[in-house]
Write a structure and sequence with these properties.
By secondary structure, the chain is mainly alpha-helical. It contains eleven helices and six strands. It has a three-stranded antiparallel sheet with strand order 2-1-6, covered by helices on one side. Strands 4-3-5 form a three-stranded antiparallel sheet. A hairpin with a 2-residue loop joins strand 1 and strand 2. The protein is globular, with a radius of gyration of 18 Å.
Amino acid sequence: MKFSTAAVVAAASIASAQNSTSNSTGSLCDKYTAALLGNNTADNQYTLLKYLVNTAVIGDALAKPNISGVSFPNVKVAGILANGTVNGTQVNLLPYFNGGLASSNRGGSSGVAVNFLDDGGATPLTMNMPANGTSSNQYRLLTHLYQYFGGLLQCSQQGQMGFSSYQGSGSQYNVHKFMNLDVYQNTYFIQQVALSAESFGVSSSDIATVGKALNSLFNVRCAANATVIPSQGPAQQSICIASDCPLAMNNTCSAYQASVEPGVSNSTLAMGEGNKTSTATQSAANGGTPTASSTSETSTGAAAQNVMLGGAAAAFAAAAYFL
């Protein structure tokens, strides 16, 4: 099985980051579970992952936990369901979640429309729940996000009662192949999940170390097969697959299908998607680094921007649209 140089470096960087952390406080998951929630149990690790993911999705609508002796940074998070802009290019990710686009892979030759906000929408997330019930698309999506993040951050208690191991696909390209996500959409999502992590006090260095490594696996086009969840083995992982996505080192484009723009399934729900009139002066495809902002926030501060620009949030963004 052929691996790209970037994938090997990424895996080594992740292992180094986790091993360095484990010398004193355990994995990054263990470290922040203990710091924020006290006992490093499976239940608490799962709670932490819910806070991080739910805040990235809906932003500040989720209140921070009231923990004695813990104060959280004042970081504005709009959430990935909010409209935003990247280098003057409008981004609207909502149609991928509400069924406005036929973009979900259900095993056929083209994408289908799936409403992943079918069980309460934002309301249960404001209470740090995945959904109102346990049999909906929304429940499946959110719980898989929690599980995947747990695997990425090496939660030591995952797999125990209270925190299941990841139950989704081992190939994130396969999950996202009908979405045709571009560099602007990925950058905006990355910004929001970076800000979510920062809002809970995750250090820039911790986010950046893991995020920079995973950026080479997910936020590039035509990446060679690589392993993310050890029990699943190597598979195609590229999430950014549109023509403006930067090519991976030792890319294997012949193994990937040609990207196709997802069809509109509901014009009202999909309104705004595709109207990406850009005034950008930089493009990742040309060696530049897109910067993102939300239309609902005026400033994120230098620290937040540094986290975003370093590929810092890709550790979280890797699970951005997972089923």
